[in-house]
Write a sequence for this structure.
């Protein structure tokens, strides 16, 4: 996938995140609108995808697994849930992703899944 294709892939995911926030939470916080924007900008200026991924995972709070901040955990769940709508390589629901990939986070994430009806 070249940078142009990856930008389109990321923008489609951003739109799915916004739609999922509206549907599940009822509104879109600023973090929802800014979700993965850093990736789009870095790809647009020509940085390679591997470097973009590394930078993004360091700076994007929704990739910081040890957080206890509820709003970040909600964004994490929204990210997991919305991925399946635009990313063929990531077909899991948020609950499936939690169980399969992040079982150590169940205590922090299951209440959010239950609260929002996932």
């Amino acid at each position: 996938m070249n940078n142009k294709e990856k930008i389109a892939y990321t923008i489609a995911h951003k739109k799915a995140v916004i739609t999922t926030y509206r549907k599940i939470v009822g509104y879109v916080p600023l973090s929802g609108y800014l979700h993965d924007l850093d990736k789009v900008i870095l790809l647009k200026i020509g940085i390679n995808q591997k470097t973009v991924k590394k930078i993004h995972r360091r700076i994007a709070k929704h990739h910081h697994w040890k957080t206890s901040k509820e709003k970040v955990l909600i964004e994490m769940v929204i990210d997991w849930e919305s991925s399946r709508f635009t990313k063929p390589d990531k077909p899991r629901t948020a609950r499936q992703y939690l169980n399969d990939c992040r079982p150590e986070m169940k205590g922090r994430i299951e209440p959010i899944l239950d609260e929002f009806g996932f």
Remarks:
- The chain has a mean pLDDT of 94.
